[in-house]
Amino acid sequence: MIHARGLARTFNTRRGREHITVTAVAGVDLNVEEGEIVGFLGPNGAGKTTTLRMLNTLLKPTAGTATVAGFDVARDPVAVRRSIGYVSQSGSTGSDARAGEEIVDHGLLYGIPRDQATLRGQELFEQLDLGGMWTRQPKTLSGGQRRRLDIAMGLVHDPKLIFLDEPTTGLDPQARANLWEHISALRTQRGSTIFLTTHYLDEADALCDRVLVIDRGVIVASDTPDALKRQISGDLIELVLSNPEHAAVAAERLARIAGDGVVSSDGNIVSRRVPSAGSELPSLLRELDAAGVALQSIEVRRPTLDDVFLTVTGRSLREEA
Ligand SMILES: Nc1ncnc2c1ncn2[C@@H]1O[C@H](COP(=O)(O)OP(=O)(O)OP(=O)(O)O)[C@@H](O)[C@H]1O
């Protein structure tokens, strides 16, 4: 559905009196298959929006190629635009018109006859839980409802591929979780392919089949959230011992598990990252028992995407690029 090779974009700009060239995207290769929900993750200024704008033809690449929904972004931008829905960060509903009029107008822009646009709009309102909002002005809707209206507008021409730029930014936790359900339902009910940018690791984790991590204009990781977590960090096994004197024996048993993780000891807590804790725990517990090591508790912590991000970029997602 999306195939990009060496996609790059620089901007000529000024810093004070000096003219400088900023590389926003430095050469991105990416593939998104039909029916996937792919999250595009990275810190502020990493190049997410610039990449998205090149893929949806709002911005011309300075180098590289991309096809979107089967059309080349440089040679056939009109066909690309007809095939995609784009929901921008700021949303598109600023006028005093009623929500229903906005969506019908949006459909007319795509050349859809008024009666069909109305039908389609009403269907989308139902699907996105906006029933009863048809005659409301968008500014009177809640944040979550407005985001769903933005999404409905992006879907009025029935695109197979939808770009969502930070869909849940500014929403409270409940509205975010609700929007995630709606986004997942788009795929289940309509077979939509969804490419979304996000700052939120939990969002990528909850929603996406695959995550692409971009940092300083380059993709630094691409995999399922689970595989990324497994591949990069491993699970943390933390043994809380009843008696700190058993720490050395516990450390020795923990060290026998295959993997590169280093054992660390702190008083009665002995821990280590291992590739996959689930399959190791039964034999570890038997060995500790046989060695007379009593446990207060044992914890297994799966790595978060936060850990992954820190590992691949050396920085936290919350830091500026
Ligand atoms: N029109 C422009 N002129 C000059 N520099 C730009 C322009 N647009 C983007 N940039 C720069 O390119 C880099 C990438 O910006 P981009 O908006 O793509 O990042 P982003 O990952 O979407 O960030 P955010 O999460 O803050 O939206 C940044 O350093 C930004 O300042």
From TrEMBL:
Pfam hit, one: ABC_tran
Family matches, as PANTHER family: ABC TRANSPORTER ATP-BINDING PROTEIN, ABC TRANSPORTER ATP-BINDING PROTEIN NATA
Domain annotation ABC transporter: ranges: 2-241
Location in the cell: Cell membrane
Family under the similarity heading: Belongs to the ABC transporter superfamily. Drug exporter-1 (DrugE1) (TC 3.A.1.105) family.
Domain of life: Bacteria
Entry keywords, A to Z: Antibiotic resistance, ATP-binding, Nucleotide-binding, Transport
Residues of the signal peptide: none
PROSITE patterns in the cross-refs: ABC_TRANSPORTER_1 (PS00211), ABC_TRANSPORTER_2 (PS50893)
Membrane topology: Peripheral membrane protein
Gene3D superfamilies xrefs: P-loop containing nucleotide triphosphate hydrolases
UniProt KW Transport keyword: yes
Example GO molecular function: ATP binding
Protein name: ATP-binding cassette domain-containing protein
